[in-house]
Design brief:
330 residues; single chain; twelve-stranded mixed beta sheet
């Protein structure tokens, strides 16, 4: 039922549960953190369910829970249970840094979570701490293994590639897919709230970007073979090392546009419906929710406002949004 002005069917809703995070990844937020949204201003579980019910009624069948770090939200397992039981919703995923996942993976799977995306930008413990500013690699790794045991598959590991920081690790990360049924996805850094100085020892803004074409060139010795339309792979261009159990994907919002296939809307933690990650246009749902009004018209309005493509600058020097990724829901 939701078709945008360019003929794209919109069937995917990303819901941010919180803008808070227990890490301070250099490409995502400042070292001192951000001014968090006051808890009373976050959508309640009932309000999130109401929005999701509208989405399902209008033909949206896929939900992804994001943040910030969504596992910081109290009652997240029960919220997943409520969303998973909703008629019309066939696929519920979650994006996390995995540091809280070891104990939560099994309860989430039992509640109805289908799949999980995990941020993993390095395999080196010391660098993990540097990039996240105080994260523990072993906690994240144990969370990844717990998700695998719980059957939250396909397990996707997302790596934001930064020149001079983790770009040389691409082969090691790609080789994880040889013996694991994991999907490693290398992502171009996007100029969203991260162009400030990251501190001593980190590359400056003008030197951080690695285009997807260069990423693939660095992996030519692995003889990557294209994989045709893997299920649920979204915007990634996907390949496989011959004989590998998993896949290697590339997500290139700057180097190779994928906007022509965009099928999503985003709901921020404070109740703003966004038609594009980087467009400032938002439709606030809170007033309608407070008045118990139907939200259908607001969804149609958001879909009608979807741009043909984003306006991110390939220079990655400027910024295209006044908010950080954690505030937008990623």
């Amino acid at each position: 039922m939701l078709i945008d002005p360019y003929g794209r069917s919109i069937n995917y809703l990303r819901i941010s549960l919180t803008d808070r995070c227990n890490l301070r990844c250099v490409y995502c937020m400042p070292a001192g953190g951000l001014r968090w949204t006051p808890l009373p201003d976050l959508l309640s579980d009932n309000e999130i369910v109401c929005v999701a019910e509208t989405a399902a009624r209008l033909g949206m069948n896929k939900i992804r829970l994001t943040g910030g770090e969504p596992l910081l939200r109290p009652g997240v397992v029960e919220l997943v249970r409520r969303l998973a039981a909703m008629p019309g919703i066939h696929d519920i995923g979650l994006t996390t840094n995995a540091t809280l996942l070891e104990k939560m993976a099994e309860p989430l799977a039992q509640a109805g979570l289908k799949r999980i995306n995990i941020s993993l930008d390095t395999l080196e413990r010391n660098k993990f701490r540097r990039m996240t500013r105080f994260g523990d690699f072993d906690r994240a790794w144990n969370g990844i293994l717990a998700a695998e045991r719980a059957g939250l598959t396909p397990l996707k590991l997302n790596t934001v590639v930064v020149r001079g920081l983790n770009d040389y690790e691409l082969p090691a990360l790609a080789r994880l897919t040889i013996k694991k049924t994991w999907h490693i996805r290398f992502i171009e850094i996007m100029p969203i709230g991260n162009t400030q100085d990251w501190g001593e020892g980190f590359p400056v803004a003008s030197e951080r970007y690695v285009p997807v074409q260069e990423m693939r060139a660095r992996l030519t010795h692995l003889d990557l073979q294209p994989v045709t339309h893997p299920s649920g792979d979204g915007p990634a261009r996907t390949f496989r090392i011959p004989g590998a159990l998993g896949t290697v994907g590339f997500i290139s919002p700057l180097g190779e546009h994928f906007c022509q296939d965009c099928n999503r809307l985003r709901l921020t933690a404070n109740g703003a419906l966004r038609s594009c990650l980087v467009q400032p246009d938002e439709i606030l749902l809170r007033d309608a929710l407070n008045r118990n009004q139907r939200l259908d018209e607001l969804f149609f309005r958001a879909v009608a406002r979807k741009p043909q493509r984003h306006n991110m600058l390939a220079t990655v020097v400027g910024t295209v949004s006044g908010r950080s990724m954690s505030q937008l829901g990623g």
